[in-house]
Structures are given as structure tokens and as C-alpha cells.
Amino acid sequence: MSWSGRLFFAWVCLVAWVAECSGLSVLYWSAYVSVTRGNLTTGPGEYGLYGRYSPLDRESGLVVLPNEDPLGCNHTTYNITQTPWIALIRRGNCYFQDKIDIAKRHNASAVVIYNIDGTGSEISNMELTGTIDIVAVMIGNIFGKNITSLVQAGEEVFITINPHGFWSTPIWIYIMSFSFFAVTAVTLAYFTILTVKRIHHYMTLRREQRLLKSVAQRAIKKLQVRTLRKGDEEVGSDNHTCAVCIEGYKHGEVVLVLTCSHFFHKSCIEPWLLEHRTCPMCKCNILGVKTVDEEVSSGATSSPLDVRFYPESGPGALFDTLDEVSLADPEENSPPAPETRQALSLDGPKPWPHQDKDQFHDNPAFEGDTNHMDLK
């Protein structure tokens, strides 16, 4: 999923969470309620709204009003003359769930609740506390009072409820509009920034390419140009071919000699150098800048060993001689007599013999040859 798709999905989840936490139903299903008296239809019907968690079923039946309380709360009873029947109740005084539960206990097939006085034809969503298995619909106050007056006049009135389609609350429309414009603005801003960055990168790359090409042109002009003549080793030889066009060299052709001493047809190598600026064979850069391959190859080579020469005469030689003497004749390694120690202490330490710098060489092989000659 792209970045914009993830952003849009996050916005939808956020909006749904806000709507759920604020107690707003996202979408409701509208109902078309029609009224008949006997076999006559009393004008066009009106649209109502299914309650939340209400079954979206079609229902029809005789309209029955509560006996004592028109609000249908507490211990309300119904005079049922035939079935199926639909309870018509006015909103107020108790929860929607209580009105529906009481009508359901009297075996109502559906419950129609009309809005409070002063609201006209306005309808609102019914927030129910739990899932119900009976159809519950909200209609406007004027429409509900007209049906109530017909029933109170002693007429048999029938209601038919048909599912119609989705209905959105105004708050949901505002949220969706805000989400749409916000997501659109963020997406446009993202793609605008991305486009500007790509254009800037492209222009910078083009500028660098033009600069490098101009530098390469100046470097190419400084390279050696050579015209092949008869008798040259490269003319007509199978061992010498142009690495660009894979063809041999002929008499009179002009070649370009690179700084690495490789040469190619001038017409072949110039376009290559303008684009790559390196030798096709050894990757030598004509601009004098190391390429990546050269840096890797130079970094991969190990440093030379530190070979130092130590002369045979000196402190090291003395220590080796003492060790050899001590191993060869243990008796000679015994401590000297007191007189000998006193004589040694009087004479003092012997200085090391002077060594001339000319006897030292950087290469041990030369020293070995010198020692060999001295021995002779």
C-alpha cells in the first residue's frame, strides 16, 4: 500500500473512532412509511429512520395506541383487536428501549415512535442500548400526530414499513467533508513536495552532468592524438583491436591515447569518454579522479611488510652469543671469582663498538651480499 493509501486508511479509522466515541451512528437505514384506511391510501407516505440495531425488515399491521400513557412508558397496556399490529408511541419520558420492550411484551410486530411536539417533520436517530429483534422506526411529529388523530377518531389505520436506503446524520456529513478535504490537502501537499524534490534533483543532476561533460571535453583536447602509419605494430594485428568497436586498426586511422597509455579509435572513444570519463579497459579516470573500482582495488591491497635489518654485531648479537655459550659449556657460565669481579668493576662498562651508517642497507639482500664479500 502506498503512503497516500495508508494515510487515507488512517483518516477513515480515526473518523470512525471519533464517531463511535461521541455516540454518533455512522450510517442509518431509512424507511418509507405509508398509511392506509381500509382500502384507501391516505396521501403519500413519509420517510422514517430505523433505530440503531433494529432489524431492517418490512412490516405492516394495524396501528394501536397505548391505553393510558401516549408516551408508552411504565405499565402501559394496549387494546389489541387483530394481529399483526404496530404500536404508535410518542417520544419522551423514558428511553426508547423501554418503550420498545413494553410493546414487545404485548406481541407487537413493530414499534413506530414519532418525535416530540414542536419539531415538525424532523427526525433523529434512535440510540438503543442493546440489540432488539423487533422493527423500530422513528417518524416526524406532524406525521405521527396525523395518524394518532385518525386512530382516536375510531378508524382502522394500517401502516406499512419498507426499507429504503442509507441516511446520514449532518455531523457525519461534516466529518466526512472535513476528512475528504484534509486527506486531499495532505495528499496534494505530499505529491507537490515530492514533485519539487524530484525536479530539483533532476536539475541538479543535469547541471552536474553538463559540468562534467565540459570538463571531460577539455580533458579530451589535452590527450595525445596519433595517426597510424604503415609499419606500426598495431596496424593489421589481431592482438590490437579497439575495445569500443571491437575492430582492428588500419593504416591512416586516427587514435586517441589516454593517460593510461591505452588507445582507441578517436571517433569511438570520444563519445564514451564524454559519458563515462574512464578508460573502457582499466577504468582509469581521464579527469584524474579515482573511481569507485580504483578505490576498492586500492583499499583491498595489503600494506607491505615492515622488514627491518639488524646487524650481527651489537647488543642483539651479544645476547645471542651469551645464550650460545651458556648452552654449550655450563661450566663456563659459573659465577666469576671475587678478583675477577673486582677487576671488571674497576675497568667499567665496555662501550659498544662504533658502527658506520654505511653498513646498513634498506634491503637485507644487499647486506647479505656485503657480509659474504667481507667473509671472502
Automatic annotation (TrEMBL):
Q: Which SMART domains does the annotation name? A: RING
Compartments where found: Membrane
* Keyword vocabulary terms for this entry: Membrane, Metal-binding, Signal, Transmembrane, Transmembrane helix, Zinc, Zinc-finger
State any single GO MF term.
Answer: zinc ion binding
Which residue ranges does the record assign to the RING-type domain? Answer: 242-283
Q: Which domain of life is it from?
A: Eukaryota
Q: Does the keyword Zinc-finger apply?
A: yes
UniProt entry tagged with the keyword Glycosyltransferase? no
Can you name a GO cellular component term?
membrane
Q: Which PROSITE patterns match?
A: ZF_RING_2 (PS50089)
**Quick one: signal sequence residues?**
1-23
Q: List membrane-spanning regions.
A: 171-196
PANTHER family reported in the protein's UniProt record = RING ZINC FINGER (PTHR16200)
What is the official name of this protein in its record? RING finger protein 148
Which source organism does the UniProt entry give?
Clupea harengus (Atlantic herring)
